[in-house]
């Protein structure tokens, strides 16, 4: 059994999609990051970095429970355990390259673009421009790569597609003010629509919907999400 520590944000959504694609049983453990539950000792014992997603595999290596944190690590762990969505052995260099491009580029820069466009104080035009333009640059890298291709790596759907989908699904947030945020990237839009058409996507969107996650953006939420912005309590 897989326990998925989940909040409805891009990185946990990737893991929900892979689990639905694999069709293996999993239990959703809500972690309400707006309430600061990611900082509680019980969760920090699973992910010392205090971020979602994380999983516990109750039947890990040697039959022992295993924790895995960071979305890219989880994607690799589950795909390797199941032997699915990894492409061919010859695809391995490309698969790792695109997974790390998403983990170190597309994801963080998209996240910072969202932060500075929606959550940061006014008067930070340089930061807003910096992260928005870098997000656009990463989109263009993918746009160019997807020309004449159906999937990101090799000839089939892999965890690279699943990983990219998690953030491209939030393009309307990243590209604030754009009526059709993927319109400037037709190859990327075609690819995204192909992923969206997979039945597992609809199931993944239902993961966690039975839990009432906090949606109010108040002082508690800001302190929970951005604790480094506040001095430590005495």
TrEMBL record:
Query: Keywords in UniProt for this one?
Result: Transferase
Signal peptide span per the entry? Answer: none
| Keyword Transferase in annotation | yes
The GO molecular function terms of this record are: transferase activity
Record keyword Transferase present: yes
Highest taxon of source: Bacteria
GST C-terminal domain location is 88-216
Show the InterPro entries listed in the entry: Glutathione-S-Trfase_C-like, Glutathione-S-Trfase_C_sf, Glutathione_S-Trfase, Glutathione_S-Trfase_N, Thioredoxin-like_sf
* GST N-terminal domain segment(s): 1-86
Task: Name it.
Answer: Glutathione S-transferase family protein
Taxonomic lineage per UniProt? Answer: Bacteria, Pseudomonadati, Pseudomonadota, Alphaproteobacteria, Acetobacterales
């Amino acid at each position: 059994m897989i326990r998925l520590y989940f909040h409805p944000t891009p990185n946990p959504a990737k893991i929900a999609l892979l689990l639905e694609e694999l069709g293996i049983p999993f239990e959703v453990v809500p972690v309400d990051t707006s309430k600061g539950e990611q900082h509680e000792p019980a969760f920090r014992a699973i992910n010392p970095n205090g971020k979602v997603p994380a999983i516990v595999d109750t039947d890990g290596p040697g039959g022992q429970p295993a924790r895995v944190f960071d979305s890219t690590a989880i994607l690799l762990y589950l795909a390797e355990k199941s032997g699915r969505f990894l492409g061919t052995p010859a695809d391995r260099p490309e698969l790792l390259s695109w997974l790390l491009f998403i983990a170190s580029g597309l994801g963080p820069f998209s996240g910072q673009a969202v932060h500075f466009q929606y959550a940061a104080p006014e008067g930070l035009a340089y930061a807003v421009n910096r992260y928005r333009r870098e997000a656009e640059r990463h989109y263009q890298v993918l746009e160019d790569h997807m020309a004449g291709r159906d999937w990101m790596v090799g000839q089939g759907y892999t965890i690279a597609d699943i990983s990219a989908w998690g953030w491209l699904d939030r393009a309307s947030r990243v590209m604030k003010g754009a009526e059709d945020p993927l319109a400037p990237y037709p190859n990327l839009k075609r690819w995204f629509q192909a992923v969206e058409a997979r039945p597992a996507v609809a199931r993944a969107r239902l993961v966690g919907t039975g839990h009432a996650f906090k949606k109010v953006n108040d002082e508690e939420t800001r302190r929970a999400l951005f604790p480094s912005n506040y001095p430590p309590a005495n």
